[in-house]
Amino acid sequence: MDPTARFSTKAERYARYRWGYAPEAIQAIFDFTGLSDQAIVADIGAGTGILTKEVVCRVGKIYAIEPNLPMRQIAERLLSQHPAFINVDARAEATTLPDQSIDLIVVAQALHWFEPQATLNEFRRILKPEGWLAVLFHTRIDHAIFEALKTVFTKENGWDTTPSPKPQYGDSHSDFYFDEESIMKFHYPQTWQESWDVFIGAILSDSHSPDDTHPAFPRLVSAVRRVFNQFNDGGYIQLLGGTELILGRLRKDVPQ
Predict the structure, then answer these.
(1) 91: which DSSP letter?
(2) pLDDT in tens, 59-83
(3) Which end of the chain is flanked by fewer CB atoms within 10 Å, N or C?
(4) Full-model pTM
(5) Interatomic CA distance for residues 223 and 77, integer angstroms
(6) Secondary structure letter of residue 154 according to DSSP
(7) Can you tell me the distance from the alpha carbon of 22 to that of 244, in angstroms, rounded to the nearest whole number?
(8) CATH superfamily of 3-141+165-190+239-248
(9) Residue spans per domain, the chain
């Protein structure tokens, strides 16, 4: 499946149930970059605007770059009232933005979908000489819960077991984009208390999950319910994790 279409049937759940990013991580971006309220930002792979909404009131302009129409429509619905918000139908590898027009590029939970070399070339083109790149993603440390979930994420339960895109350059996909001397890495702990509706909603927003019309959909929901019943306390399951932030300048050398 075209990666830009994988979330078309999951956009509403994605917007409603996906986790937000730690406020401390957002603040750290502005603290370390020193960007003003007139800065121009590009949120690449913006999806439904989960990160965009945390930045839109702090900058002069933010381009939400997203190729998936249903996700882009949700972002438009939620954020179009903000004068700084600009919705753009484009991909990371070809953003359509002007040369050297961007002070800060942000990428949240999306970098693994991009073709690295073409994306780095595009980032170099649109970013100002002293511009910044910030990459954010979630981590989860509830090993027992996620090991239990892995046993139900099977073909028999309708789960698409095709691997997600993997880094093409070394073990760390994000490090490929950064200048080694400027890179900074931070971890901000988060805890999520999830009811059954939120727990299953987040799982069904995953690109590998079956749609509601899939024959195995009820079987997956029943299997996930058993995991929830095993680990919940008083009707809520607690997930431990956090926001990882990687911040720095773009690399200038040519990757080997």
Answers:
(1) B
(2) 999 999 999 999 999 999 999 999 9
(3) C
(4) 0.92
(5) 34
(6) S
(7) 9
(8) Vaccinia Virus protein VP39 (3.40.50.150)
(9) 3-141+165-190+239-248
